Amino acid sequence: MTDLGGRTIALTGAGSGIGRALALLLAKKGVRLALADKDAAGLGETRALLGNAPATATVLDVTDTDALTAWIDEAAREFGGLDGVINNAGLSVVAPFADCPVADFDRVMAVNFGGVVAGCRAALPHLRRSDAAWIVNISSVFGMMGYPTQSAYNASKFAVRGLTEALYLELGATDPHIRVIRVHPGGIKTNVARNAKFIAGMPGTASAMDNGDAFEKAARTTPDEAAATIVAGMERGQHRILIGPDARMIDRITRLFPVGYFKVIGTFLGGGR
Fold it and tell me: 3-class DSSP state for residue 54?
């Protein structure tokens, strides 16, 4: 177990959901925080909830690599170093691949994957100077399985998984003090599905992912529960963190049935072949 108290951690997507819950929990543990989000109002609310806890709040879009890098560097200057980065910012678009505009697909990839790449690149030089550090990349259960209408989200989250696994192996050899963690949340009671840009559903198919209300009803885990699981995994130095009973179920089924898993879980998730 490694104590997080007194460490400095940069966190994207801190304006709501898992990001806000992580900020509040980490602050309680004595972590100094550099928070970022594109949503100025949401980020301001998170910062207000932290009270007098040592934290900065910066409005930025993670696809602006120069701004993201400047934010990371400033956090290290402000707090005298950086011990961790949690790449949490993300978004989704609902559409079959054939109906998904190029700009929407590319935007999901730029935020969900490009933002993670940029966060890792910006943080790594600082983390190498720490005696104990963390890279935490938020993937998804959709980084473990494909799902119709989620081709962009699937692609981005599988990419996050692959990047994080490679970093785990590389840094395990060169910088073993840096704990590299990939997180696979299942259904979390956040606004991600409700805020997803809906373009089109599958023809003649009612999918839970086509409707924010339906997804929220199916979501089994709160942001606070997700944050507690992530922080506990950081303290234990886990490489892979599954969040929620649905994530654990999907993990088992995709490993047992790597080709035909969707025949087993399609009905549970709302359709498919």
Answer: coil
In a structure prediction context, what are the per-residue pLDDT tens digits for the chain, which is 273 residues long?
Answer: 899 999 999 999 999 999 999 999 999 999 999 999 999 999 999 999 999 999 999 999 999 999 999 999 999 999 999 999 999 999 999 899 999 999 999 999 999 999 999 999 999 999 999 999 999 999 999 999 998 889 999 999 999 999 999 999 999 999 999 999 999 998 775 555 555 666 556 676 655 444 444 445 556 789 999 999 999 999 999 999 999 988 998 899 888 888 888 777 765 555 443
Q: How many CB atoms lie within 10 A of CB 13?
A: 29
For 165, the domain range is 8-269
Active-site annotation holds for 261: no
In a domain, 41, yes or no: yes
Q: Whole-model pTM? A: 0.90
Rounded Cα distance between 119 and 98, Å, is 31
Bridge partners of residue 43, in order along the sequence: none
**256 within domain boundaries:** yes
- Residue 2 domain-assigned (yes or no): no
Residue 245 lies in a domain: yes
Give the CATH number, domain containing residue 226.
3.40.50.720
Q: Describe the strand order of the beta sheet including 84-87 as a list of residue ranges.
A: 55-59, 32-37, 8-12, 84-87, 133-138, 178-185, 240-243
Angstrom distance (rounded) from CA 126 to CA 137: 17
Catalytic residue among 147, 153, 168, 261: 153
